[in-house]
């Protein structure tokens, strides 16, 4: 009996101990929960206000913390830029590369290490996520000479927070607006939906010294959908189906991209009331390898090993009947635009596959349209850079092209752009073959008021150098049975008639019908010089120089104006 009584006492003692432990644990959890939530709010204040050097202000709606599992629910968090502090930092050239405004409807934190948080002032989290958010990012390009003595975030949050380590951040259902904040007319990019994943986020002294990180994250994956964009004057709009970026692979991909005027062709020229060209650009897909997004954000540099663009198409329309304002194109050659770009660029190689270029011009006199089309283009460009250190090592940007002109005629060319030239020097060597009179008439009739009645051009070889002011070179040409009919536009009625008498004189006394001639002797081309008007573009300068060389071969007088 005594043994049974002893057992009962031990059972009661154990039950009381367990109940007491449970009660103490419940009390501890209760007080921990009561303590964790205010402390979390305090640390959030430290991170946002103190960590940004008072650049931001914020409002927080609901924050619920659960001791078990370390889960936290957040609702209605708003982060705004403090305008007064923004102006102070901008004047001191001390703004960060990116500023942000956030409207977070719902978010969560999982796996918060409560004891580290309470006892060690360390924030250790498994996952942070958002379910609904609007984000507005503004990018600030800091001058190279600007001081970079901002207090790093890991120092700014001390001693309240010793370190922060987050395994991953998942953002889903985010609407994003991005703009450059340098001018009031800055470009704005809008994404209707965005998903982002950040992995191994650390805010401490060791992570700050890790140059492989993008911001504070080891790896970043971004997926943007439904890009929308308009130029500041709303003359052009841009859209893309998706943009994907992975910092782990340093890979950027764009799909279904289009850039086109906002207005249709007729309304476009009414709106601008100037003789400007109208552009449309689109491509199926493009990707860049070893692209350093961190260098672009922090240092305004585009660095990539290679880029590939699938099925790009460029359409250019020029209405020469429009009498627009004078626009000088000095300094507007492709490599001159590269050298004066607002962003530093160093791309080792760029390839265009199955590309197309369609240039359509409406003749000033005839009012008719002529089109030169290059299709099936394979283009490879190398050493695309405006970095002085790279140019000192290699000052030539090269591009090779193989394509078809007028749908069936093969053409190839090799371009050299001299990046160290103050005068925009370039060189191009190329060859076109098997062009018929009917194909040339697509351009000659509407734009040149001339019709090739018969003839075939077997080959045109050209070797041209140029700069801001001239194009010069030699054109060699082989053709047979060439006859031309000159045309005239009646200024009153607009009727087009053939000038039969002048055509006969041209074909009999001025034009060489064949090369080689009847004696089998080939007439070689001589060097010609084309004085470039300041209104002519890069490709117009090349074409005008080639055409002048063709005249030297075809015409007995050398040149026909």
UniProtKB/TrEMBL annotation:
Keywords: Membrane, Transmembrane, Transmembrane helix. It comes from the Bacteria. The chain crosses the membrane at residues 12-32. The keyword Transmembrane helix applies. This is AsmA-like C-terminal region. The lineage of its organism: Bacteria, Pseudomonadati, Bacteroidota, Chitinophagia, Chitinophagales.
